[in-house]
Amino acid sequence: MPDVRLASRQGRWILLTTVLGSSMALLDSTVVNVALPRIGQDLDASLAALQWTVNAYMVTLAGLILLGGSLGDRYGRRKIFVIGVVWFAAASLLCGLAPNSVVLIAARALQGIGGALLTPGSLALIQASFHPDDRSRAVGFWSGFGGIGAAVGPFLGGWLVAGPGWRWVFLLNVPLALLCVPVALRHVPESADTRAHGRFDILGAALGALSLALLTYALIEARGGSPAVPLTGAAGVAAAVAFVFVERHRPDPMLPPDIFASRQFTAVNLVTLCVYAAFGGFFFLTALQLQVVAGYSPLAAGTALLPTTVLMLLFSSRSGALADRTGPRLPLTAGPLLCAAAMLLMLRVGPGADYLTDVLPALLIMGAGMVTLVAPLTATVLASVDATRAGLASGINNAAARAAGLVAVAALPLLTGMGPEAYRSPTAFDAAFDRAMPICAGVLVLGSALAFALVRRPAPGCRRPECRQHGCVTAPPLEAGGRG
Fold first, then answer.
1. Whole-prediction pTM
2. Regarding the domain with residue range 7-190, which homologous superfamily does it belong to in the CATH classification?
């Protein structure tokens, strides 16, 4: 049984290193969007290259995050966490030194692999290290500090882009890793799951990531009319079919198909796909809209996005408590509708948009909608499966959210008719943005309708989330599984 106490010196060191590690990935998920216009200018990149700058990271992270958690359970959580931090920092250094968009995109894909190793590992270290009496408090501190990192991310990204330059958005991870790794090696005890057995589903992970990459490529490149696009799309579908076949026939699949026998679990993941597809498209395009069309500096654009994550950080735990009393159906129905209304309000954001009257109202409503739905969504995921599969269910839900976001970033420019140079033209980008927001709102309305029709109150006594404070806008919080 883990026996480290939170009030002890070792307990504080463990908390520090897990917060530092998870903050690296959280910061990158929120700051890169703000840097995109400057990246495009400096590297003379097309809109497709900017899409890949976001999506290359998401493809490998979403495809490998379940495998990353399993590696930690088998080979040692501290070991895999440290490897993930070092890998992430090395890839970040390559991003910061990238001479062109091709190198940057490749480095971002490598970053995603590091993120898949360290993201589940940071929470698993807390679970495996702290005494049971202190574990919930330790998770609360971890999620709270992580939420602060997510909230500060856009502001910090804007400051770096406007000051030292966009490359420091990535280079900042290097000193964080240099602090994190020695602390982890010195103060964090090693742990593993002695019950872990069987072969790793490397084939399944590879097929999942390959399918996402091929389908994303087809969506991003479809505007050019290349004959390779339908072939790539067909190959992506074939890889997805092969992934399902492999998962159905492996003795130890990464994504066990029988977990979807729970109607509630399937329903809430369908809602997740709709909600986080809209969120992914919204935050990608809004960071560009504020700079390209409204004329905001990177610092102003980053600061403008703060209210959403601050509201989530402050009120997500209260939202979870309210959902415990009302059941998840109401918040999962109302939350997406609030977010849809916020996206329609964003249609007021055009050239010379005033922050207080045009931007802030939409972001406050957006934050209120996210507060309403994110905590109940996570709680419903955990309550819909057996307690022994809580970590797996949370990982699937997190990966689904990230996959939905990357598909949205790939598809929205195609659906709205953005050309390769659209982000260089305020007029063209504004017109496309005005077409994109109703699409995102429609996807949210679909998610609301699915929640209303399919989500039901969980049985009493179900497991509740430990991460009650959350500030990340790209995916719901991860929850740990059984004790190691």
1. 0.91
2. MFS general substrate transporter like domains (1.20.1250.20)
